Amino acid sequence: MPMEKYIVIHGPNLNLLGTREPEIYGNVTLDQINKMLYQEAKKFDIELEIYQSNFEGEIIDTIHKNRECAGIVINPAAYTHYSIAILDAIKGVTAPVVEVHLSNIHQREEFREKSVTAKGCIGQISGFGAFSYILGLKAIMNHTRNIQY
Ligand code: DQA
C-alpha cells in the first residue's frame, strides 16, 4: 500500500513565528513547529509535505496541486477572515481539510471571530499554540482513516 500523503499549509506572516507578537503566538519558530510535525509523521508512518506562503494565489495553487492527498491541515492566518477564494479552493478539492490556529480566534478582536474558510473544513482547532498543528494532523488522520475516537 502506498504511504498516505498529508499536507500542512502555513499562511501569511507565519514565517515570522518566534519573534512575531510572542505574547500572542509564543516563542516557537516555524522551523520548530515543522520539526514537531515531521516527528509526528514518522510516528504514524505517513508522508508529510509542509508549505508556507504569504500569497493567496500560491496557497490556492498548493491546495489544487494536492487535491487528491489524504488530508490537508491549513492555518490560513489572516486569510481565514475574508478569503472566499481559499474557501472555494478548499471546497473544490476532494482532500479533507482541517483548519488550525495558534491563538484562540474566538477570544480576540471581533474581526477574528469569523472564519470564512472553516465553512469548507471538517473542523477547526484554535488556541493551543504550536500543539494546534499536532492536534490538526491527528484529527485529519483519524478522519481519513475513519477512526471515531
Ligand atoms: C492566526 C490567527 C489570525 O487571526 C491571524 O491573522 C494570524 C494567525 C493564528 O494562528 O492564531 O496570522 O491564524
From TrEMBL:
Site-annotated residues for Transition state stabilizer: R20
Q: Where is the active site?
A: Y25 (proton acceptor), H101 (proton donor)
Name a GO molecular-function annotation: 3-dehydroquinate dehydratase activity
Provide the binding site for substrate.
N75, H81, D88, L102, S103, R112
User: The organism sits in which domain of life?
Assistant: Bacteria
Q: Which InterPro entries match?
A: DHquinase_II, DHquinase_II_CS, DHquinase_II_sf
GO annotation (BP), single: aromatic amino acid family biosynthetic process
Answer yes or no on keyword Amino-acid biosynthesis. yes
Enzyme Commission number:
4.2.1.10
What role is this protein assigned? Catalyzes a trans-dehydration via an enolate intermediate.
The cross-references to PANTHER family, in alphabetical order and at most eight, read: CATABOLIC 3-DEHYDROQUINASE
Q: What HAMAP family does the annotation carry? A: AroQ
What name does this protein carry? 3-dehydroquinate dehydratase
Species source reads: Serpentinicella alkaliphila
* Gene name tied to this protein: aroQ
